[in-house]
Amino acid sequence: MAEEIPAQFQRLFREHYPGVAKKLYALTGDYAAAEDLAQEVFLRLYRNPPERLEAVGAWLHRVLTRIGYDYLRQRSSSKTLLEKETARVAAWSEGAVPSGEAEVIREWEKDVVRRVLQKLSDRDRTALLLREEGYSYEEIARRLEVNPKIVGTLLARAEERLKKKYGQEEERNHGGRSEADRRGSGF
User: Fold this and answer.
1) pLDDT tens per residue across span 97-135
2) How many other C-beta atoms lie within 10 A of the C-beta of residue 95?
3) Is residue 151 within 8 Å of 137, Cβ to Cβ?
4) For the CA atoms of 178, 182, 184, 186, what is the dihedral angle to 10 degrees?
């Protein structure tokens, strides 16, 4: 049994690491941070695996989301730190070989999501992130210090504001980005 666990872990690591790292990069916008955070996800998997390994995908998603958002909260707590990270990512990206249209679209989508998250109130952002991380309504209520009976309404309203702001941000930036792409491609 003891030999089986490391073998299972190695298999799960090989199978799921690329997807975990890719999701964390999409969330953070930082390759180095995404790789570090992905290692943390798998360290948690090794130390405290889920009871049902067939559900490891959902478990990994929940843990990577929690770790990614914790990272973003820490990073955005200081505006100076956020600016340094942005400059570092931009400097790294300039040295990287472009990977095509998919990479351009992914970068644009990440920027939109980051801007939208920054525009939400702390309460809305926290409520939505906690729900995404799998917290119960009671746990969300305790964390936000609100009555558990209002959590459903609070989440519905926060989600509505998120969708509205995302739509506005996407519309505002889509036209300019498409025009710039057309000029850059010669069409």
Assistant:
1) 445 666 777 777 777 767 787 788 888 888 887 887 788
2) 6
3) yes
4) 180
Q: How far apart are CA 139 and CA 129, in angstroms?
A: 12
Inter-residue contact 127 to 158 (CB < 8 Å) = yes
Say if CB 127 and CB 151 are below 8 A apart: yes
Sign of the C-alpha dihedral computed for residues 47, 53, 57 and 63 taken in this order: negative
Per-residue tokens: 59: 């478990």
CB contact at 8 A, 96 and 117:
no
Tens digits of residue pLDDT in 33-50: 889 999 999 999 888 888
- Kindly report the three-state secondary structure assignment for every residue of the chain: CCCHHHHHHHHHHHHHHHHHHHHHHHHHCCHHHHHHHHHHHHHHHHHCCCCCHHHHHHHHHHHHHHHHHHHHHHHHCCHHHHHHHHHHHHHHHHHCCCCCHHHHHHHHHHHHHHHHHHHCCHHHHHHHHHHHCCCCHHHHHHHHCCCHHHHHHHHHHHHHHHHHHHHHHHHHHHHHHHHHHHHHHCC
